[in-house]
Structure formats: C-alpha cells, structure tokens
Amino acid sequence: MSTTTTTPSAPGSDVPASADAPRPATPLRSRRRRTDPIYHLFLFPALILFSLAITLPAVLGFLYSFTNSIGFGDWEVIGLRNYIAMFRDQGILGSYAFTLGFSLVTVIVVNVLAFTLAVGLTSKIRFTAVLRTIYVIPMVISGIVIAFVFQYLFANTVPSMGQAVGSDALSTSILANPDWAWLSIVIVTAWQTIPGTMLIYIAGLVTIPTEVYEAGSIDGASAWQNLRHITLPLVSGFIVINTILSFKNYLNAYDIIVGLTDGGPGVATRSVAMSIFRGFEGGDYAYQMANAMIFFLISIAIAVLQLRVTKGRTAFGS
Fold this sequence. Notes:
Blueprint: H1 28-33, H2 37-64, H3 81-86, H4 90-121, H5 128-135, H6 143-165, H7 181-205, H8 210-218, H9 223-234, H10 236-251, H11 255-260, H12 272-281, H13 285-310
Helix pairs in contact: 4-7, 4-10, 6-7, 7-10, 10-13, 12-13
C-alpha cells in the first residue's frame, strides 16, 4: 500500500497544490523580520564596549586636534594650525618617510623569504613537520624581548666578530650608524614576522592540486616554469593579502624599534607611532592628535585598498 502526500491548495484556488511544486519565494523584508530579537540583544554589550573604547576616544581626539591642549588644564580652539604646522615639521615628515620606507622594504624582504620557505616546506623533503615547528617559534616570542636580544647581538657580538675577522664594516655597531640603523630593524622585524606570513603561503600552496603539476611534468615543464606559470598564478590571492596586511602592520611598528634603537641615532629611526607617543609625553597632546588623525586616514586608505583588491578573491586568486 502506498501513501500519497498532498498539500492544501491556495485559498480561492480550485487547483490542488502539489508537494513537488516550487514554493513562492519569501520576500526579503519578511525574512528579516523573522530574526529573533535575542540576537540583537547580544550585540549591545559589544557595541557599547566598542563605542567607549574606540569610537569615543577617536571622536574626542579629533576634536582636540583643533585645540592647543597639552593634555590637561585650559585650552582654546585654534582651528587648523596644528595640521598646518605638522606639514612644516621636518621631524614629523622624517618619521613618515622612515615609516613608509621601512614598511616597503620589510614587506618585500618578508614576503620573498616567507614564500621561499613555504615552497621548501611543502616540497617532498624529510622532517617537514619538525622544520615547520622550528620556523614558527619566533611567532610566540614577544617583540620587545626579541628586540633586546638582537640589540645585544648588534652592539656587542657582531662588532667583536668583525674585529676578529678584520672587517671594518662589522667592527662598529650598526645601531650607532644613522645611515644603516634602519637595516637592523628590518632584519629583526623580518625574523619575527616571516613565520606568520609563511604559514599563510603554506595554506595556499597545499590547496594546489597535484594533478596540475603532473600535467606540467608531462608537457616537459621545468621547476622554474612550474613556479612561474602554475604556482605563482594560483597563489596570487595569498600574495596580495599577505602584501597588504604586512604593509598595514609595519606602518604601526613600535615595540621592536623601541627595544632596538629607541628611535635613534638621533631621530633616524623614529616611526610615526613613536612620534605620536613621544609627543604625548612632551605636552604636545593636541599637536600629536592632529598627527594621529592624518596617520589614521592613511591607515583607512590602505584598508579600503585592501578590501577593493582582495574582494572576491579565493584560494586560487580568482
């Protein structure tokens, strides 16, 4: 005996509705009304905390940037004087030049080395798991601790080794050289951030089907041709994401610079973040708030660029 399932016909209709007939689409407005109000209730605590911790200080800082406040006491509204003075301040402009140059060089160094290591660690070599574990160790160490360790190496160990081998270039500390101190910051930053970038590249490389490389080998492709025509195009999305995220993070560099050079010699390695913080200590509260607003707009521009470039990209960069 068979059982037939029927559905009631629509009101006012003589034709019975079939179980297989497509149901009319629910209007978008009706579906939104079905959202349980309890979900909105859960949003309020986070919204309040975010507003108090992020939005309100940012709005107050923006308002103070148009005053002559030193952080306490009386203050007056002075309009755009802080912004105009900032663009004439060679110290501020120097910090922007250093930060942008340091970020650009570090992005290139970190991504090239991280991609090279990722390709090596996804190839058919022995002890891959052990090597991956060793390479990610710098990720779990604090940046300020790493900076102090390398500060000792650059100030003592490397000059001693340079004197032992008779090298004039290595006999003095690179940290005391205003022309080359930035290189030490690039080295330490790369040492700490390469593991995280490498893991993202590994996640991209393992998604490439092996059949693609097998087809390439059948056609006689060399290792360089496989890298150029298969690997790089298929992980282009990961390259774009890593490049933009790294650049945005390096713009906010602070702890490694403080522990390594403290912005010196002089102000040769002073970043924008350090200039803002030192300004607060020196009573330039409103002036540095104007600096922070400009820096905030630059960060927003990079974030928007990231969203536009990475929009719709998947693991295979399409």
